[in-house]
Amino acid sequence: MRVLHVISNIDPSLGGTSTALIALARAQRRAGLDVDVLSTFSTPSEATADELRRERIGVTLIGPTTNPLSRHPQIEPALREQVPRADVVHIHALWEEVQYRAARVARELGKPYVMTPHGMLDPWSLRQSKWKKRLYLALRLRANLNGATAIHYTSEIERDLAASLNLKPRTIVEPNGVDLAEFETLPPRGVFRAKHPMLGERPIVLFLSRIHPKKGLDLLIPQFARAAPVDTALVIAGPDADGYANEVRAIAERCGIRSRVLFTGMLRGRERVEAFVDADLFALTSYQENFGIAVVEALAAGCPVLISDQVNIHREIAAAGVGVVVQLTVESVRHELHRWMHDENLRRQAGGRGPAFVRERYDWNRIAEHWAAHYASVAGSSR
Prior knowledge:
Blueprint: E1 2-7, H1 16-30, E2 34-40, H2 46-54, E3 58-62, H3 75-82, E4 88-92, H4 97-109, E5 113-116, H5 123-127, H6 130-147, E6 150-153, H7 156-161, E7 170-173, H8 191-195, E8 204-208, H9 217-227, E9 233-237, H10 244-254, E10 261-263, H11 269-278, E11 281-284, H12 293-300, E12 305-308, H13 314-320, E13 323-326, H14 330-341, H15 344-361, H16 364-382
Parallel strand pairs: 1-2, 1-4, 2-3, 4-5, 5-6, 6-7, 8-9, 8-11, 9-10, 11-12, 12-13
Helix pairs in contact: 1-16, 3-4, 4-6, 9-14, 12-15
């Protein structure tokens, strides 16, 4: 089975869509699928491409693209070369030219294709640049969605949120995952702290994601200032999105806690795991979050989580007792931050349940095997 993944960028600093695609491609290759990735780019992504090629994943990069819609004249020729070789085309995200062209070419050539919206059909997402998206949906996107053999959602909540669009294809619900090999042998506690002396022995609340307005830092920081013990540090780890980090620093300054907030920039690889191990609580109070892979990674490292009810895996988190789900209100965030940061036993018990929960539900290797079956079904139904 040969799968061609199509995406608008494979730079992991751009967020969860790229990160999920990279991890999925690797897991599928380990599961024995022949995997190719075709990606446009605005800035070069050669380092990531080379890593994938070393794992025998074919990568085609097209760019740099130009706005609007990240166009490039080589998109169509590259697709017409690669789509005929694939058994299934898997298209990630929605709004750029490469996804539109991939769906059109696949339909023209009679190739089955799967579309993964990555949360972009959630009502919150559709309200951003509302009229542009409505027009694009009507003129271009709806036909491509309805022409798909299947639409893939990473949770039942994501699927249900898109139900009002009345799309025709069958649905696949399959989560994102984690590479459990990264978490088999955890670093000893204290390694991350030693790299950042300001932390000392302070308790740590960790935010690890893009620094972006939708992530809810404007809610988290003021309630951290009010509710967390005064010796607690807030670690904000992640790449800056469009200069929003300056606003986040200003919020911390206004709340009088700038000296308690550590900005690390994006953490990669083992350093990311070290941060999870040393954190006492992982916090993500997003206004919209399709999946939240960092939530699952924190749990794999034994760190309990505090997430908003707009993170689409919040039902699973609450049911497993591996953290707490808050409403996006001042009172809810403040109350739960206070409760969890003043109760070490509560954190220890929830964190202790995390690794087994992740192994059972979010092992990329197992998920990749599920995808082999999904693709076989997609190809069979297309025939």
